[in-house]
Write a structure and sequence with these properties.
Elements: E1 22-23, E2 34-45, H1 72-86, E3 90-92, E4 95-97, E5 104-105, H2 107-123, H3 136-142, E6 147-156, H4 161-169, H5 172-178, E7 185-192, E8 200-209
Parallel strand pairs: 1-2, 5-7
Antiparallel strand pairs: 2-6, 3-4, 6-8, 7-8
Helix pairs in contact: 1-4, 2-3
InterPro entries: CAP_dom, CAP_sf
Region (Disordered): 25-73
Domain SCP: 80-206
């Protein structure tokens, strides 16, 4: 039987002079931005666990230029930013995390990230829980990825990759996901929709295959 260990805290949008935004654990973010708590799941991640992904049919958000999962430059830049962070020890909310090996990019994890960012952007919500109650592990399994551990970071409102990485690295839960020694692969996506509350929605998915 799969055992799951979840790091879940409530999401809190902090407003105030100078920042106007924050993460659920109090890290400062750019004005109008918000970061969800990093979720970590460990266990026996087979792809036939019955999890379902959010529905991204009729996608009206913009992910790159065509509403499709991002690859190419976005993948290269995100992977480089994450691996640069992992290459040096850092303090994640008072816990020193050692430097860890670089990750590789996985397109199944990218697709899982895209599904969630697309749904958040197009259905105007911000949560690790998807439209139909699915969790990060469900979305990864839905892509046929057999996992032994899964982590997810989400954020909304940050206008570029440098800003969202800074937001995550200054938030303990997200920082620990980025620095997680148990992860070997990642994928990520951002989707924009000017009609949604935060306009741009980011998802990082980390995993180790089984």
């Amino acid at each position: 039987m799969r055992t799951l260990s979840l790091l879940i805290l409530s999401t809190l949008l902090v407003t105030g002079c100078g920042s106007g935004g924050g993460s659920d654990d109090g890290a400062v973010a750019d004005s109008g931005s918000n970061s969800g708590n990093g979720t970590v799941i460990s266990g026996d991640g087979s792809s036939d666990n019955g999890g379902t992904s959010g529905n991204n049919d009729g996608n009206s958000g913009n992910n790159g230029s065509n509403g499709e999962p991002q690859s190419g430059d976005f993948a290269d830049q995100m992977l480089a930013a994450v691996n640069a962070a992992r290459a040096q020890a850092r303090d994640c909310g008072g816990q020193m995390m050692p430097a860890v090996p670089a990750l590789t990019w996985d397109y199944s994890l990218e697709q899982a990230a895209f599904v969630h960012s697309s749904n958040m952007a197009n259905y105007n919500f911000f949560s690790h829980t998807g439209l139909n109650g699915d969790q990060p592990s469900d979305r990864v399994s839905d892509q046929g990825y057999s996992w032994s551990s899964v982590g997810e970071n989400i954020a909304a409102g940050q206008k570029d990759l440098a800003t969202v990485m800074d937001s995550w690295l200054n938030s303990p839960g997200h920082c620990k996901n980025i620095m997680g020694a148990n992860f070997t692969q990642m994928g990520a996506a951002s989707v924009t929709n000017s009609s949604a509350q935060y306009s741009i929605y980011w998802t990082q998915v980390f995993a180790r295959p089984r």
